[in-house]
Amino acid sequence: MNMQSADSRPINIYTLGRFDVVLDGVPLRFVFKAPRKPLVLLKALLCGGRAGVSQEALGAALWPELEQWSAVKALYATVLQLRRLLGRKSAVKVDPARVALDPEDCWVDAWAFEHAVAAARDPTELLWALRFYRGMFLSDAEHSLASDARARLRRTFFRSVLQLGSGYERIGDTQSAIDLYLMALDADATCEDVHRGLMRCLAREGQSSAVAAAFLRCRAMLTRHFGTEPSAQTEKIYREACPSGRAHGLPPPGFRPAAEYASMP
Fold first, then answer.
1. Are the beta carbons of 71 and 59 closer than 8 angstroms?
2. With CB atoms counted within 10 Å of each terminal CB, which end of the chain scores lower, N or C?
3. Closest CA to 231 of 194, 205, 265, 186
4. pLDDT at residue 185, rounded to an integer
């Protein structure tokens, strides 16, 4: 599998779990206030992938308060600022319909991740591809372009993790599955299916205390992010591995403290 590394392009941009721009090996830093609009435009272009984003969509996302013509003028002015920021005019391509980052100048971890997953021909290559995903895509970007790209990348990551993990489980390589699920949860802990896969493998290894700890982590995540409880499938794995829960200093499955009930409407 022949993948270009980050070092092969003059502009390296990291978007998964962090936002960082590296120009010819030097991280982009600002002595004074960072130029907001060029960076917002950069993040919007990153959402569009190699194909970029239409000028109309950029105007609506970045300058919703302006009329279309005024938004186009603001876009062109911001493109010039972004080119200066990146140090290369060729880094940002503009045509009558779209604006895009030039993949000849720019290496982007999210693009590399999607390409590597699509090109993976075996479990080893898929595992290598998954290591690009270090966390949520552009977590501080709030417009719709970012949320759509974030959801797509997250789906790709978890679908690939579960595909690879189930393969490890089928051939009895439980430890590789455990390592994979732990890696995935370190990057993004918001998928119950991955928590459940980890619990299932730990139970097969006879690690009941670890199953209980994994269950508590899963339950805390679901409560914090979604306001829900673990599914019946997840509770079943916990219940079978830890019949009472009290053996590990934990409440039994389905238990809620009295204070929680008292606070419910």
1. yes
2. C
3. 194
4. 97
